[in-house]
Amino acid sequence: MTTLSEIAPLSVHRLLATRRGNNVLEQIEPKLPSRISEALVDGSRTVMMLGPAEWLVLDREPIGPVDRMIGPEQPLLVFDESDAWRLLRLQGEDAVDIVTQFCPIDASADSGFKRSACATHLARHPAIVMPRSAGEIAILVPRSYATSLFALVSDAITRSVLPETEYAR
Amino acid sequence: MTAKSQTRRLAQGGLVDRTRPLAFTFNGRAFYGCKGDTLASALMANGIDVVARSLKYHRPRGIMTDGPEEPNAVVTVGEGSSRTPNLKATEVVLHDGLVARSQNCWPSVNHDVGAVAGLAAPLLGAGFYYKTFMAPRGAWPRLYERLIRHAAGLGRAPEGHDPGIYEHRHSQCDVLIVGAGPAGLAAARLLARAGLRLVLCDERSRPGGSLTGAMQCIDGEAGSAWARQTAGDIAASPGASVLLDTCAVWLGDHQLVSLVERRPGAGSVAERLWLVRPRQIVLATGAIERPVCFPGNDRPGIMLASAAVAYIHRYAVAPGKRAVIHTNNDSGYGVLRHLCQAGIDVKAIIDTRPHELIGEAALRMVRDVDVLAGHRIVSTAGRHRLRRIDARPADGSRRSSVIDADLMCVAGGWSPTLHLLGHRGGAMRHDEHDAACPAAAPGDGVAIAGAAAGVTGLAECLADGARAAGTVLQALGREVPVLRLPVIDAETEVSSGNPTGPSCRSLDVRQQRAAFVDLQNDVTAQDLMRAVDEGYGAIEHLKRYTTSGMGTDQGKLGNLMTIDIVAEVTGQPFEKVGHTTFRPPYTPVTLGTLVGHARGEHLFPTRQTPFHHRHLAEGALMELAGSWHYPKCYPRDGETLDAAIEREVRTVRNAVGFVDMSTLGRFEILGPDAGIFLERAYANRLSTLGEGRCRYALMLREDGVVLDDGTVARMTTDCWHVTASTAHAGDVWRHLERLRQVEWPELHVRLVDVGEQWAGLAIAGPRARDVLAAVAPELDVSPEALPFLGCRETAFDGVRARVFRISYSGELGYEVYVGARHGDRLWDAVAAAGTSFGIAPYGVEALDVMRIEKGHCAGSEFDGRSTPAELGLGRMIKRDEPFLGRALVHSPARQHSFRQRLVGLVSTDRRTPIPRGAILVAGTQRSRALGHVTASVVSPTLGQPIALAMLQESTSLGDGELRAVSPIVGLDVAVEIASLPFYDAEGGRTRA
């Protein structure tokens, strides 16, 4: 059985590297992922690289002393976007199948999907898809789209997925 | 009862499950089939000969093939809103309760009134509609068009909501193998062994392709059993999927392949569209057998030889009792033993080739059957089923061989199925030996295997599949695993034989009617030759003129015959004639499948503001403004829409109201070069803006046309807050990011879209200051501390807030923003603070009324054509600094007198509303439009209709009056030009 639920409010911060930041990013703690769509998980905190010089930090707890991330010469601009996002959790054996109804994401084991946070569109809803564990996918969606996406995914769960053929897996 | 009704079902054999009968109806009659049947095989098992009527002449048609190439058996399946027209009976998998009907016939398929069209056939040749219906001219709309519309079309589209559920699925894999026949399976088992992620798809319900319709043995077991076992092994491999009932319908660029999975009766989902992105593709799509062209080649009972074999072995159905095999190649001889095995009496083999061209292996298969070599069929007889065949020597002698038969198996050679390759522009060449068109080159990322590559023979196809797999593995940089090729029982192999003869000789059919090349569109060889005589020698022109190959089967059977005939008639080589274009989809796809989930409430994504539930609680009448759910107005008990809008406007003008502003685009521009960036991006001066100040700003495109307007506020030295209109927020964001990343990468500036972060309310009206003072007691809201176009960062109830003193309504106004999760508290605070003043929320309609009263431009004026000067904003444009759009905004063409300008309009009688979108004309000169009305309301404040319009600058009305004419709503209103704004021209209320 697959379920969709909303996870309680989070801390979400966007980090933007300034030009000056390019030289000092390596000194920043915690370490930032260096490949686009890569996600590093440390306890309750997930840091993901969304694009060139752009990261998003999620935390179930308040994010803590921001200036530690800013560093000595302001290599990073930090924006509190906690009000801009809602986090949905898709859980169950059909979770990946449901996500792939709406998005051409490569969810195979050797694609690095499990360590990724992919900024994409789910049926034209902007979203960040983050696999958490086997059968669990977190979907970070802009606040204004959340209700629409929730209804869409819920419908997909309700009608379930097409019974597979004898051979298909 | 079930066995009794299936009079042609063989007692033994086949792959159907006789223990699981399935009830279905056809043309209202109840029948039974078996699990594993298609509708075509079930109809054939029940002795149904006439399944459909042809498109033009309404000739009775039976089942000719067993696959997607079927031109005849086109039916409607389902009832009511679940009805699907134009399905090929050969592709419809039988399920319990299936309802099917013939189409294009009345009152019944066996007695069709439309068949009288056949009497007029000599007048209805190719392109007849281009030459007729010319006169009398008046008869076209009254008579001809009605008749043609009534007669045209195949089936009826369903009405009402389709209850079926359709879904899309994306997939990525290393290799996609299209076709689970011998070559496809051979390729897939090797690729699966190599550990690749693969998808193997096949349009049929069972794997095996031709193996399921034959008697060949592989590795000591029946071919169908081997295929089933092999497919199971492949599916069990890690990362491999086998999709049956799944047809590849389109091969696009960048290796994107569309598959359609059809699962009637399997759960609630009717069809699924797969969008597969493989790194490599193996096309093992097999080959399609061609018919032979001869007079009367469309009668029920005449079918492809391979189809007859398939019905015998796959579905255990005897397609007839007394058969003739008509062939032009050796493969036709292989059919003989299959027919005999099914107890069918084979009367003769008619071969168009002379005896010396027939292969020895083929002749060895013939026992006790006459071979009429070098013969052609001159006629057939039989009303609803083939009854008699008349064959004569091709040398012109009149010695006639009349044969009584109810089944003719035609074997006209094999055409590789390369439609998918054609979708991507893949070229084909002509192979004279097989009279077919295999691929010239498969192209990057594609390998072709088996019969699709022109390979014949089971052993050769298996080996070719393995070869294709090796090619794919090498392309992927993988080692080729060692895997034993399956062993074929040599006695079951059929030799590929001698060269294939022509499917059609023009001399044979020139004077004969009813020698069909395209059976679905009733195109005869005579039609083709007539078209060539009329000058349609180019194959693409001829296709359109005759409609050959333009049916739902896309001419899968007739295309090569068409080219053959044109080549012969024009005396050109086959290559010179060329090939028509294969266009996607390979088989028809329902609209539901293409749409998928995107219908009803999921047609497109919708957005809600943080105040959405507040709007609903206040009884708002909601509407979709773009993708946003937005309140139109808040009608109170018994209030009409107009009354509610009027009340809301008066509330703002006389007291105070508030409106949700959360849909605006909002961006933060940061960095030491942010001011320079904005100075270049906007057309008016911004770099001089001081901290805590905001300004109206105009953004142009490169061509000098207005892209959007908004406000720019300087919160701190390096932090700017920019707004964009709701409609253009996305465009403005992309525009700004492009400028930052591409045009001016040297600037130290970063952009952040903060639209989702903030919840915003605009408080407007003479008492707005009082309300704000109560809401934000820490903020000094006095005109001195917070003047017009001032902005402050402050605290609201302990959380961060931004306040801007700007107004869209023309009243004293403030916009207040807090974090979205605190929106409810802001709403409550504003409502509570304004209670004593009679505060009320207002919707987009009241907002629109007030902006028109103030003469503000919005989306209907920013229509992608207007320049700042035309909109009365020319004075804002800076003259001395560069900005995007400067080069063209000052160009002479932009200043020309034919350009339009924004004006205000009032109706001359001050009572009649001015229709929105109306065309402006001068007096009675209706032929020349001078402009159009962009926005119109009845102003509650002014008590009269007012409008904004774009009017030509050089308008000279002469003695006439200006009129707003709307043919759509049937209104013609005399109007006068009025100065803008209509309300508070000095702006004293805004600056209060």
Polypeptide structure, described:
Chain A has two domains: 8-82, 2-Layer Sandwich (Alpha-Beta Plaits), CATH 3.30.70.1520; 84-167, 2-Layer Sandwich (Gyrase A, domain 2). Chain A contains three helices and ten strands; from the N terminus they run βββββαββαβββα. In chain A, the strands form two sheets. Chain A has a five-stranded antiparallel beta sheet with strand order 1-7-10-9-8, covered by helices on one side. Chain A has a five-stranded antiparallel beta sheet with strand order 3-4-5-2-6. Chain A has 169 residues and is α+β, with helices and mostly antiparallel strands. Helices cover 15% and strands 37% of the residues of chain A. Chain B is elongated, with a radius of gyration of 37 Å. Chain B folds into six domains: 2-113, Ubiquitin-like (UB roll); 167-287 and 416-475, FAD/NAD(P)-binding domain (3-Layer(bba) Sandwich); 291-412, FAD/NAD(P)-binding domain; 504-585, Arc Repressor Mutant, subunit A, CATH 1.10.10; 641-842, 2-Layer Sandwich (Gyrase A, domain 2), CATH 3.30.1360.120; 893-978, Beta Barrel (Elongation Factor Tu (Ef-tu), domain 3), CATH 2.40.30. In chain B, strand 43 (919-922) and strand 44 (931-939) form a beta hairpin. With 992 residues, chain B is α+β, with helices and mostly antiparallel strands. At the A-B interface, strand 6, helix 2 and helix 3 of A face strand 8, helix 6, strand 12 and strand 15 of B.
